[in-house]
Specification:
With about 190 residues, this protein is α+β, with helices and mostly antiparallel strands. Helices cover about 50% and strands about 20% of the residues. The chain is built from 9 helices and 8 strands. Strands 1-8-3-6 form a 4-stranded antiparallel β-sheet. Strands 2-7-4-5 form a 4-stranded antiparallel β-sheet. Helix 4 (about 110-115) crosses helix 5.
Length: about 190
Amino acid sequence: MHRKLIDFINQYHPLSAREADLISSSFDPVLFPKNRIIEEQGTVPKYLYYIVSGYLRLFHYNENGDEVTTHINCPPGFFTSYGNFIGQSESSENVECITECELLRITKVELDKLIATSPVMKDFSISVFQQSITYNENRSKELATLGAEQRYRKLISSYPEILHNVPVQYIASFLGMKPESLSRIRKKLTNENQ
């Protein structure tokens, strides 16, 4: 499990054997079943997760009590309610396993220790946080400027495997539309491809 995390970090910032051992000893492996909420809204996120396998989502309830999915991961990568984890503040979102998930997790205290002792991990953490900010800015821009069909086409061209692992209602919510609208778009695209 830890090998995947080490290989992932090595793609961006080469690690020494000592740093790789330090990172491995700082992340705890966990396995969660599908549909398990692992961080609840109204609480401070306890962990930053590295996804070895599986799909997670961030969601909250709107004023009508409907679930609104704000983020779905495509493995590998890190996942949590970032701003709340970094600031150790109460999150308004839940972190839920969509599928069974193999994860490596680290607390904020352990992450801070790791960053303090490993310059590579410090640089890597900064780049992960920057990627998160860029991702959220791009997502906001897409929701504001792209039509529903364009958003769906972009998602499936970037992450085709998401269709086989994530229920349609979560994908629709993530794309800012109702499941019925997504069904119409999918039907239209299927007809175009025949």
